[in-house]
Amino acid sequence: DGPVRYADLAVGELHDARVAWDDWSTPDFDDTAWEPVAVVQAEQSLLPFVGEPVRRVLEVPAERIVRTPAGERVVDFGQVIAGRVRFRVRGERGSVVRLEHSEVLDQHGDYFANIVGPNKDQTDVYILRGDPEGETWEPAFTFHGFRYVRIQGFPGDANPEDFTAVVTASDLPVIGHLETSDARLNRLHENVRWSQRANFLSIPTDCPQRERYGWTGDLQVFAETAATNMSVGPFLTRWLRIVRDDQLPDGQIM
């Protein structure tokens, strides 16, 4: 039993800090109440990981917190990213903070849940332990595609400096740069790099918020651009091996 009550890579995470053990991984932790481990037989072959690991590659501070026409508190990070939010909070024990993620606002400037289907919620939940000095949390087992975050249940005032968007991606070296005399073209190129960063997370995906699948069609039209922007050789080699492993005897890829 521990603080992570629910976690889904494509949906969100629920963390109850009231039952967290801060020192559970240290040698001095008293584990006498834990169940004894069971030794099981497992595959013992060791295979190297091909490609760059997924890391926290950037941090984007919140630009502002707005009150929408509907009265919601929404954090605006100024940029669509793939990752999660780290925030600081101080409040009573048992207070529940909800973070809902979206890429856009609606035509009125209100929060807009822009996806449907099984991954539609895009919500992280944190239950406070009530630390008088405050507490900081960042989900560990999920990520979202977002620019805007609706916050509910946040005690007291919410300030932009309390929120940081943590960008997660395969840590690919940037090798291509483009700078022109046209600011619009520069912004377009930067948008392409942000999109690549958001969709090159362990595998090349179609989007960072809905399906998040490694469809072959999306990547094949972008591969040349991807290789111009970043060093993607080992990354794509690993993905092609995964595709090969999924291939049926008749050539179909499932």
From TrEMBL:
**Alpha-L-rhamnosidase six-hairpin glycosidase domain segment(s):** 175-253
Give the source's domain of life in one word: Bacteria
Where is each Bacterial alpha-L-rhamnosidase N-terminal domain found?
Answer: 2-56
UniProt-listed Pfam families: Bac_rhamnosid (PF05592), Bac_rhamnosid6H (PF17389), Bac_rhamnosid_N (PF08531)
GO terms, biological process: carbohydrate metabolic process
Where does the Alpha-L-rhamnosidase concanavalin-like domain start and stop, copy by copy?
Answer: 67-167
InterPro entries associated with the record: 6hp_glycosidase-like_sf, Alpha_rhamnosid, Bac_rhamnosid6H, Bac_rhamnosid_N, Rhamnosid_concanavalin
Q: What is this protein called?
A: Alpha-L-rhamnosidase
